[in-house]
DNA sequence: TATTGTTATACTCTATAACTATA
DNA sequence: TATAGTTATAGAGTATAACAATA
């Protein structure tokens, strides 16, 4: 497979617009983490949490209902044990609590406490406030378009990747 | 600063479009890495390299001229020692070579070999080909808009983060 | 037997600190 | 003394494997 690919792709470059999109996403994503924007928003919210824990808290706040460990993991696109530890850390700080699932005693449902909900609200507000300032000069049309297109892009890409994985592209 | 922010941000939610953009970027970025799209493209290019090494190779290919270690680090937004190791790995595989900088004997310029250039071309073509398929159904107008808006977003966000860092938001 | 979650461990990527060589 | 790069080490984030409890 390495020496004889079905179609040698090197001949013609795909359209330039595509070539532009990919590095932008990378750059944005790395700017958000390397620029420590998330850490700042966390600090502004008065939280002494690392990023994964904040992710769990925001997932719960966004869900607006108690979630299982597995559900949180799915939404965050991470694996179960990772969530277990983050939830334990959040529990210790009194930001989430467990409520047993009456229908399935293997599972436990996680929900934010009052303090957790408030902290998540402060965090999200801080982050979005920063973004709102960054986009302050944008015409409303452009904001709408960006949100629409980015949503579609994310949907298309993830759907395609899921199919990819399931159809047996898995064993490279 | 934590107790008396100029405008308390918690009261009203910023517009919903903003709230939508952020998780999309996260989701996209994580889909690209978790979905192992990059690993697949690497394998299709016949490369036995990890992601950071591929990043270096693509940086060099994109630059179209020999780069210093420090220049590569800047472009990848990582730190020098990290690049040093990746370049060493690429050297061992014959994908890049060093050419001494005649004007500054402390520095070494890195350039891809023939094999390195070809491998980078194959990799980029594979990745973009995948993306092209994912976006096959999109109207050209939407693609253009997405590229334009995403570029502007990346520019605005990174510029703002840079200012942020330099103006002394640094010591939280 | 399949599923939910936990514990323990390992891996990937990247950063920081200490150092060398040249400027 | 300042800069380019290297070596060695440390840390954050996430994955895999082995296991326990319940379904």
From TrEMBL, chains A, B:
Transmembrane segments: none annotated. SMART domains: HTH_MARR. One of its GO terms (molecular function) is DNA-binding transcription factor activity. Pfam families: MarR. It comes from the Bacteria. Residues 15-155 form the HTH marR-type domain. GO terms for biological process: response to stress. Signal peptide: none annotated. Gene3D superfamilies: Winged helix-like DNA-binding domain superfamily/Winged helix DNA-binding domain. InterPro entries: HTH_MarR-typ, MarR/SlyA-like, WH-like_DNA-bd_sf, WH_DNA-bd_sf. This is MarR family transcriptional regulator. The lineage of its organism: Bacteria, Bacillati, Actinomycetota, Actinomycetes, Kitasatosporales.
């Amino acid at each position: 497979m390495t020496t004889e690919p079905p179609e040698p792709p090197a001949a013609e470059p795909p359209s330039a617009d595509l070539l532009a999109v990919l590095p932008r996403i990378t750059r944005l994503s790395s700017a958000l983490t390397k620029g420590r924007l998330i850490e700042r928003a966390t600090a502004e919210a008065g939280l002494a949490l690392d990023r994964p824990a904040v992710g769990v808290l925001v997932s719960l706040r966004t869900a607006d209902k108690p979630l299982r460990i597995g559900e949180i993991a799915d939404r965050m696109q991470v694996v179960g044990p990772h969530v277990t530890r983050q939830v334990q850390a959040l529990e210790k700080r009194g930001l989430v609590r467990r409520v047993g699932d009456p229908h399935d005693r293997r599972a436990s449902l996680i929900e934010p406490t009052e303090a957790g909900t408030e902290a998540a609200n402060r965090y999200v507000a801080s982050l979005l406030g920063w973004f709102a300032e960054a986009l302050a000069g944008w015409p409303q049309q452009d904001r709408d378009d960006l949100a629409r297109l980015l949503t579609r892009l994310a949907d298309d890409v993830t759907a395609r990747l899921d199919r990819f994985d399931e159809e047996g592209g898995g064993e490279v």
